[in-house]
Fold:
Amino acid sequence: MSSFSQVHTIPTTRQLALYDKAPVPEEQKQPVLNLQFPKDPGDVIVLLKSARTANGLTYQYELLDDSSTAFPLGSVYICNYMQESVIIRLGAERILVESKQRSVVPLTKQEKPFNDGVAFAAEINGHGRVFSTSSWYLSPSMKIFCIIYKDDRGNPQIRRIRLT
Structure:
């Protein structure tokens, strides 16, 4: 899984075609994915997912609400794509994010930044396992988008993107 974070304007057609390689003007090439945006989506995060099949790579997408109500500044948006539930320690706070669920957690308190340890744990193959620990810093004017998933070998992974 790769990640990048850039702000783009939603096309006026509300549609976006993605190609594996840029098409040549005379070439009739089919896109690998067509994204359809709602009539009035507001701010959204587009999450692209690929899967390897017998026919090659296939792609899917999700549109996640990035409005100030759904995902306020000073918070973390956690998406758990694992089969297992995950327990997350964010400083002194403990959060349970069930399998295939999401949670938005405010981290900054009254204009004070969050600057503390973070740990992720799950029961994997019948054993409780901490699979990621680190220190996070989050100012009240930022937010963090966090994806939890398993890599091709079945190991839990975290992808974190700071958004401003």
Remarks:
- The chain has a mean pLDDT of 88.
